[in-house]
Amino acid sequence: MRSGRPRSARTDVRAPWGLRYPATTGASFHVVLQGTCWLLPGGAGRDPVPLGPGDIVLLRNGGEHALASAPDAPLTPFAPRRPSATSPVGEVCLDGPGPRSLLLCGTYLLGRTRPHPLMADVPEVVHLAGRPGSHPGLRSTIELLGAELDGARPGRDGIVPALVDAMLLYVLRAWLAERSTAGEPVGWAIALGDPGLSRALAGVHDDPARAWTVDDLAARGAMSRSTFAQRFTAMVGQPPLAYLTWWRMTIAGRLLQESDEPLEAVARQIGYRSEFAFAKAFKREFGIAPGRYRRDRR
Predict the structure, then answer these.
(1) Phi, psi of 33 (to 5 degrees)
(2) Among 121, 107, 117, 251, which residue's Cα sits nearest to residue 165?
(3) What residues does CATH 2.60.120.280 cover in the chain?
(4) Structural class in CATH, domain 190-296
(5) CA 286, CA 114: separation in Å to the nearest integer?
(6) Closest residue by Cα to residue 245 from 288, 192, 274, 286
């Protein structure tokens, strides 16, 4: 679901302070490493949200919002200083006489044209409270991020984006776990917990080039063809072979962006015997030819 490296900024502020974050094309995130603050969601009628140490906020649609030491604090634009134009890690410092807060703020660049099905189920604002002992993998990642942000040590620009990427998966995993504990499993994720459907999905994900049929996938899930097709469509949101095509084209889009492999080689990797058939299917999904798609995203 990612379309580029995440960008983040170590945000060291002392009250009174307020930062306005512009809308982005991806998802915004904030981690409270030390201190407290308030999230001021964009849009009329939305109440401020208090944040404490260890709290994490993910704003799925990257809409305009703000963070502040108090709900009525004056706001200034979020404009991190970066060592270079390409650096993924920046710095924001605001001095004041009041208590200090240390935050990690940033953006995930996520594809909007082909969003991951899980993201469709995620609420606009995900708030994970920093409770001791909860979600140990996520907490360990945050500790590592805090240690890396404490100083500009060699390799930081390589380590921080990797940890921030991992944090997104940990956040989604933690959110799913909390929903399941509360008896509120959601959408596409339900299929991952269904033994039969998860085996079928694993087959599609692991071997997209195989000439899968509905019968093959049903057998993998130990279900009749009709039961499998109905259950898959209800839980995943599209029929099995439509999902297979979606997954193949998603892989193709990534290969076109990240590699220089010939179109024929890309086609073979996702199960198309000819470049022509692949190009036709790709244009039907994306609206443009694969060669142009590659050029436009370089």
Answers:
(1) -80, -35
(2) 107
(3) 7-181
(4) mainly alpha
(5) 9
(6) 286
**Class level of CATH domain 7-181:** mainly beta
CB 281 within 8 A of CB 272: yes
pLDDT in tens, the chain (298 residues): 665 678 888 999 999 999 999 988 888 999 999 999 999 987 656 889 999 999 999 998 888 999 999 999 999 999 999 878 777 888 999 999 999 999 999 988 876 666 677 777 788 899 999 887 889 999 999 889 888 887 777 888 888 889 988 998 899 889 888 877 776 665 677 787 788 999 999 999 999 999 999 999 999 999 999 999 999 998 888 899 999 999 999 899 889 988 899 999 999 999 999 999 999 999 998 889 999 988 887 6
Name the nearest CA neighbour of 16 among 41, 43, 35: 35
- Do 126 and 49 touch, CB atoms closer than 8 A? no
